[in-house]
Write a structure and sequence with these properties.
seven-stranded mixed beta sheet, alpha/beta, globular, 18 helices, 7 strands
Length: 417
């Protein structure tokens, strides 16, 4: 039976990537064994691979189908199923038929019934299926009838790394998924309602396919600029938004990143945190090209959101200013103005002013309410003022740190609901 299944897997023409991972390779090794001792050893390794991911074999197969990056899943993101060659559609149907046969029977045929009955509760945990296509795949008797549904899924959710990770970073010359992104909820950020509403509106323009502007979030430290950008992801991920973090040192790769993202159906925010430049910085030149444009058209599905504590992003020194010397650049003031006006190249500049006492206490009260702290309003505000005086001054970050400390302190006393 193993050899028959092995032959089926070998016939896959598009979805070979389903087995290009630890679980898949363990399964292939299991199929290739030809004696009892090797089979039991391979079975144990396959079992461990499934258990380490806390996933069943059936769920694993469906997850890999939905994530697989192949010619079909790539092309249906750009065109209708009916525009694809018939040979490609036939290849998809053949592969889905093979994979469904593995879904329906392989786990039982490859396992001793006694062993399987003893361990199935470990590798087949209860799994709440929320995705419509996952439900269809689990319930359908013929996966070949779901080609259009599969195409719609790829078009909406993407494939590969873009389907698996809502947040990514550019590192070592490639995109890498962020396994545990900071799950800031945008509704939890208070005190800066006007810039928040403007940023949300601009992001909704992007998601709806209208022209969206690059945004500079400028203001005092700890005012929630970065958190506001991060908070867009939980709110809009289901609508196709992806967040890509690019360090200032990696901005020279922006043209390459843009070309990778250009033709994808998802919408991307390139997030650059704490932006500032030194003179003749290569990153400055790369970002300038992206903001101002070049002969290459700007993609409609990508915007840059950058945060900075500096209104003028390029550092200026008094020595930069014109001096009455023969060696001076003739149009030195033009150079100075170019540096000072770089932030103007962002379509939107959102300002975050330092928090006064009223705004600081508003943030503290809001965070205390979310944390359900059992403390009187008078004591909360008194201690919040003390904390700001003794620590980092009034800001959203200071408020967050104060509430975290207070939550721990009251928790030890059993005062949290």
């Amino acid at each position: 039976m193993s050899s028959e299944i092995y032959k089926k897997v070998s016939l896959l023409v598009l979805y070979q990537g389903v087995f290009d991972n630890a679980i898949g390779q363990a399964f292939i090794t299991l199929l290739a064994t030809d004696n009892v001792a090797d089979f039991l050893k391979a079975y144990g390794q396959w079992f461990q691979a499934l258990a380490s991911k806390n996933i069943s074999w059936n769920d694993f197969l469906i997850e890999q189908i939905l994530l697989d990056d192949n010619p079909f899943s790539q092309q249906v993101q750009k065109k209708s199923v009916w525009e694809l060659p018939e040979s490609l559609i036939n290849g998809v149907k053949q592969d889905l038929s093979i994979l469904q046969s593995l879904y329906n029977s392989s786990i039982y045929s490859l396992s001793s019934s006694t062993i399987f009955e003893q361990i199935k509760f470990l590798i087949f945990p209860a799994w709440e299926v929320e995705n419509k296509l996952e439900s269809l795949l689990h319930s359908s008797s013929d996966w070949t009838e779901l080609v259009e549904d599969l195409a719609d899924y790829y078009r909406k959710c993407g494939t590969g790394i873009f389907a698996h990770y809502p947040a990514l970073r550019w590192q070592e010359g490639r995109l890498q998924g962020i396994t545990h992104p900071d799950t800031v909820q945008i509704q939890d950020i208070v005190g800066y309602e006007t810039p928040k509403e403007t940023l949300i509106k601009n992001t909704e323009f992007l998601l709806a396919g209208y022209p969206a502007l690059n945004v500079l979030l400028y203001g005092s430290r700890g005012s929630g600029k970065s958190s506001l950008v991060k908070g867009l992801l939980p709110k809009y991920h289901s609508q196709g938004l992806r967040l890509i973090e690019v360090a200032k040192s990696q901005l020279k790769d922006l043209p390459l990143i843009i070309e990778i993202l250009r033709d994808l159906p998802q919408k991307f925010i390139i997030f650059v945190d704490d932006l500032s430049f030194e003179e003749d910085d290569e990153a400055f030149k790369a970002l300038k090209v992206i903001l101002e444009g070049s002969l290459t058209a700007r993609p409609k599905n990508v915007v840059v959101y950058a945060t900075s504590n500096r209104r003028h992003l390029v550092r200026e020194f008094f020595a930069d200013r014109p001096q009455p010397k023969d060696s001076d650049e003739v149009h030195n003031w033009d150079t100075v103005q170019e540096k000072l006006s770089f932030s103007d190249r962002f379509g939107l500049t959102l300002t975050f002013e330092p928090a006064n006492q009223e705004k600081y206490l508003e943030i503290v009260r809001h965070l205390a309410s979310l944390a359900k702290l059992k403390i009187s309003l008078e004591e909360l505000e008194f201690r919040a003022k003390q904390w700001a005086t003794q620590h980092n001054g009034r800001s959203g970050r200071t408020a967050r740190q104060f509430i975290d400390f207070l939550q721990g302190e009251l928790g030890l006393k059993g005062s949290i609901k």
